[in-house]
Amino acid sequence: MQKKPTYEELEQRVKESEKEAIRRKKAEEALRKNEKRLKALLAELAAKNEELDSIVYRVSHDLKSPIVTIDGFVGALREDFGDVLSEDGEKYLRYISDAARKIELLIKDLLDLSRIDRLTQKKREFPFARLVKDALEALQLQIKARGIVVNIQEDLPVIYGEKRRLARVLDNLLINAIKYIGKENPSPRIDVGVEEQDGQKVFFVRDNGIGIEKKDFDKIFQVFQRLSSAKKQVGEGTGIGLTIVKRIIEHHHGGKIWLVSEPGKGSTFYFTLKKRGLEHGL
Questions:
Q1: What is the pLDDT along the chain (282 residues), one digit of tens a residue?
Q2: What gap in Å lies between CA 247 and CA 253, rounded to an integer?
Q3: Cα dihedral 35, 37, 40, 46 sign
């Protein structure tokens, strides 16, 4: 037979229960205070991010005007004084034009980055194949110049999302594939398609280019990051394109993006999109 607790034992248990209740109450109060602080910090961070995006937008937009002016004067110099320009003079004008184009590209990418969260677009269904075709048409000159063979998978599905933003995703991934295809590649190839992984449609852009080291997988999606190991084989870039891709896929379409790559064996960029029903909580 189990022994009944004594009065002293019962009294001790009551005291311990009271102490535990007090500890829990203090912990709950501390948690509520921390939640308030966290919400305040998040709100402050969101405001600062919005302010920073606004500054980037205004500065980038204002820089467009002087770049146009520089290009205009370079053109005027060539037109009016081309006959008397020395070889060095023409070389210097070419340097100015190249620098202006690089700044113009950076401004364009900065504006696009600042607009990602600023502009909202209506999501709808549309064929992924149409998106691929439009992107390839826009890049046809670069593809032909590099002699790249592009393979597009048949029977690509209909997808749901913001068409203009997803067009930018595909455009940037294809530009990245072209850029990293390698200057000495004897048979450059890019594949675009979709496959099933764990019951989910996973889209991909694959190239057989120079590849990327595993230690750089996360770095390549960060803003202004360009791989030093590839600078000799790759043209100039801003280091913003894949940052834009990641933000569009993850922040605006609830998906994921990752890559599989190995130096000398090409790269495959995979991404997913949240299904329409899941987005509406169905």
A1: 566 777 677 677 778 887 888 888 888 888 888 888 877 777 776 676 666 666 666 766 677 778 888 888 888 888 888 888 888 888 888 888 888 877 777 777 777 776 666 666 788 999 999 999 999 999 999 999 999 999 999 999 999 999 988 998 999 999 999 999 988 888 999 999 999 988 889 999 999 999 988 888 878 887 656 665 555 555 555 668 888 899 899 988 999 999 999 898 999 999 999 877 544 443
A2: 9
A3: negative
Give the span between the Cα atoms of 85 and 77, in whole angstroms. Answer: 9
Contact predicate 85/93, CB 8 Å: yes
Instruction: List, by residue range, all CATH 1.10.287 domains of the chain.
Output: 1-119
Residue type at 216 in one-letter notation = D
**Residue 40 one-letter amino acid:** A
Instruction: Indicate the CATH number of 1-119 among 3.30.1560, 1.20.120, 1.10.10, 1.10.287.
Output: 1.10.287
Length of the chain: 282
Class of domain 124-279 as given by CATH = alpha beta
Q: Which residues in the chain are classed under CATH 3.30.565.10?
A: 124-279
CA distance 4 to 9: 10
Q: How far apart are CA 68 and CA 275, in angstroms?
A: 43
